[in-house]
Amino acid sequence: MPIREAATADLKGIIPLYKTFFSSEEEFRKSDEEIERFLKSLTGSQKFMILERADNSIGACLFLESFGQNKAGSHKLWRYNYFAFDSVKAASMLIEEVEMQLSQQSATIKVELVLPEGSKAISIVKSNGYHMEGKLE
C-alpha cells in the first residue's frame, strides 16, 4: 500500500473517511463541498499524507504540520492533524512512514497529536509508542 503526499484531487475521495471517523466533529457534519473547502484550506500550510490501497481507496490520512524547532534545527516539533483511518494496519503503516520521513529531517523530533475524547486513534498511537501528555478540558 503506497504512502504518498496527497494532491488536491484526492480531497473528494477522503471525505467519506473523515465523515465516518470524525462524525461527532462539527467540521465534518457539513456538506461535502464545505468539507472539501475546509480540507483544501489546510493543504497550503500542512503536508497531507495518505495511504492508498491498490483499489485507489484511502485507508488512512493525516495532515502534518511543522510548528517549531531549536536554533540549530536539530530538534523539530511536528503535529499530526486530522488523523483518520479505517484499519489498525493502515494507521500503523502511515504512522511508521511519516515517522521515518520526519527522522530524516532532524536529529530528534517531537510529535503532537490532538484527538477527540474517546477516539479509536488513541489506542493505535499508544500501541505505536506514543504516550498521553495531557488532556484538554
* Helix residue percentage: 25-40%
Gyration radius from CA atoms, angstroms: 15 Å
Query: Overall mean pLDDT score?
Result: 83
Spatial order of the strands forming the largest sheet:
1-2-3-4-5
Distance between the termini: 37 Å
Number of strands: 5
Helix count, DSSP H or I runs of 4 or more residues = 4
Largest sheet: 5 strands, mixed
How would you describe the overall organization of this protein?
- There is one protein chain.
- This protein is an alpha+beta fold and 137 residues long.
- It has helices at residues 11-21, 32-43, 88-103, 121-127; strands spanning 3-5, 47-52, 58-69, 75-85, 108-113.
- The protein has a five-stranded mixed β-sheet with strand order 1-2-3-4-5.
- A hairpin with a 5-residue loop joins strand 2 (47-52) and strand 3.
- The longest helix is centred in the last third of the chain and has 16 residues, at 88-103.
- It is globular and about 45 Å long.
In short:
The protein has 137 residues and is an alpha+beta fold. It has four helices and five strands, in the order βααβββαβα.
